[in-house]
Structures are given as C-alpha cells and as structure tokens.
Design goal:
By secondary structure, the protein is mainly beta. It is 12% helix and 50% strand.
C-alpha cells in the first residue's frame, strides 16, 4: 500500500545515443514499513524492448532477469514490487529502456518509507531517584518518518511538547513531583508509542490527620486516620495527650500504604489531643487532631436517652398494641433528631 505525493514527468530522449532527462519533477511514493509497495514504470515501449530497473546506480532487474538477489523484489508486468518494505529501501528508483533507434528513455520515482514513531527518554533506565530540592531535566527524543510529535504527559495532562524532541525540566523538586511520567511519540504511522518514566523523590514525611470519627452503634468507638507521604517509608507512632499509645484490647492500629489509623473501642476518657508522628531518615513531622469533651458527652447523652425510651416502652404494661405501634415511629424520629 502506498501513496503518491507528486505527479511524474516521464523522461524522454531527444537525440539518438543520448539521454535527455527532465530533473524538475520526480514522483514521490510513500509506503509504510512492513507493507508491500508497487513502483510503477511509466515507459510505453514495444514488448521486445528490455526494461532495466535500478535503485540509485545499482541494477535490480534486466527484463525478467533478477540481478539483485533480494527475494522481496519482483516484477509484475513492467512494475517493480517490494514486499515488506524496509527503511533501507528508501531512495530513488528508475526504469529505463533503449529503443530500437538507440534512444534511452527513463522514468524515475522516489520512495519514502514511512516508519512508526518511537520514543526514547534520557536519562535511561526508566526510573530516577532524587532528593527534595534537586533539579532534573528529562528529555524525550523521537524517531520515525515523518518526524514525530513528542509530548510529556502526567495523569492525562500534557506538560511539554515539541517536534522530534521535548524537554521536561523539574526544578527544585518537591514530593509532589514524584510519580509516573509518560512520553508520547506520534507521527500518524501505526499506534502512538508510549514510554514510561518514574521519578522517586526522597523527602521527609508529610503528615495530615483527619477529624476523628465517633460512632455509637452498637457501642461508642472512635477512629482517627493519619495520612503520611514519605520516601523512604516512615515509622508512625500515636500519642494521646503526649502519652504513647500501644495496640491492645481497647486500641487497634492498622495501616494501608500511606493511610495509618487508630481505633478506640470505647469513649471513656478519650477527649484531648491525638498526635500522629512520622519519622524517616530525612526527618520527622507530626499532625494533631482534638476530641473535645462535649463531643463525647453528646454521644453519651444519646445512649442514655435511647436507653430510657427503651425502658419506658418495655416497662409500660398498660400500653395497648395500637399505642405501641404509634410510639415506635415516634422513637425512631426522636433518635434521628438527636443524631442530627
């Protein structure tokens, strides 16, 4: 499969024994790498005239006689066929014939082999590790015919682009600069070529504590979550009012990647400051959340008021079946109002 970008002007001799060629226009054919290309010969000659095919100055065929021993090349009628065209097949081709008059007529073509885009990232290795504050220059160069469009992409956002090459400077890196970067190379031939590159930024921990979550059903419990971003990985400790907390019967601790959580299985004496402390070889950081006493009192009051209502219902022997049915929805509305 090929395309033509310029109409040919057939080269015709003007004097016996001489060749007069018009060099102003040569038909350009384009074929995609790996596909077959047929190069036409525009000469109209008598059947007994031998047509010679050349690539540059090298003879490929003399009539049906194969001169170049490349089995990908063949003659169909007067045309030259190249199976599975490769980059080395690009260049000028000509078919020529000597007429009975001794005149030499020539038809020329130029073949461009379209090659899929390919990206290459510098530095190599697909990953780089740097400390916070270091500046890094990532360069992606592309190859292919035609020259590809290059773009740096992160999380679906284009950061930089260029024709044939694109630089991505990361100046004074912070922990947010760490992650996966992609270089996309595209020239319309085949699929977009994507190369991945990962930047690891070594940094002291960044800590964030989320507000405490207090639950009263079926009994009062508290969960506090701490987000820790660090490289290398940090050790994490929890403190309540400056006192180190340890996992036990009434305290559960767990973590998943950058999330660290503490679960308190009762609400007695749980008010105060909770501190999440993270530390690695590059430093330490902490964050605090506070549980006020009134937050726990509200939960205790809800439990007491619910208990009183349940006791009232179960201890009232004079309630009729009809009045009980009316009271239960009222209790549900009361519980919902108290929780608001």
């Amino acid at each position: 499969m090929f395309t033509t970008s310029l109409v040919v002007l057939i080269l015709i001799s003007g004097t016996t024994g001489r060749t007069l060629e018009n060099e102003q226009a040569i038909e350009v054919l384009k074929g995609e790498q790996g596909t077959p290309v047929e190069i036409p010969c525009d000469l109209i000659v008598e059947p007994h005239i031998v047509i010679v095919w050349k690539q540059g100055r090298r003879i490929l065929f003399a009539g049906s006689l194969r001169v170049r021993q490349d089995t990908r090349l063949s003659i169909e009628g007067v045309n030259l066929v190249v199976e599975s065209v490769q980059p080395g097949d690009a260049g000028d081709y000509s078919c020529q014939a000597e007429l009975d008059t001794g005149e030499l007529v020539v038809s020329k073509k130029s073949l461009v082999v379209l090659q899929p885009a390919k990206a290459k990232i510098i530095p190599g290795g697909e990953v780089i590790t740097v400390k916070t504050g270091t500046s890094v220059l990532l360069t992606c160069s592309g190859s292919g015919v035609p020259a590809p469009e290059i773009s740096w992409v992160r999380e679906g956002k284009v950061l930089a682009s260029g024709q044939g090459e694109a630089d991505l400077p990361l100046k004074s890196t912070t922990w947010q600069n760490g992650g996966l970067y992609q270089c996309h190379a595209s020239n319309g031939v085949g699929e977009v070529n994507i190369q991945n590159f990962t930047v690891h930024v070594l940094h002291a921990p960044v800590v964030e504590v989320l507000p405490a979550e207090i639950e009263m059903d079926p009994s009062c419990s508290i969960q506090i979550q701490c987000l820790v971003y660090s490289s290398p990985r940090s050790s994490v400790k929890w403190f309540h009012q400056g006192r180190l907390l340890q996992a036990g019967v009434d305290v559960t601790m767990w973590n998943l990647e950058y999330l660290h959580a503490i679960q308190l299985h009762d609400c007695k004496d749980r008010s105060g400051d909770y501190t999440c402390v993270a530390e690695n070889s590059l430093g330490a950081n902490e964050a605090v959340t506070t549980i006020a006493e009134h937050m726990l009192r509200i939960e205790e009051e809800v439990v007491l008021r619910v208990d009183r209502q349940i006791s009232l219902i179960s201890g009232e022997s004079r309630l009729t079946s009809h009045s009980s049915i009316l009271l239960v929805p009222s209790l549900i509305l009361l519980l919902n109002f108290i929780r608001m």
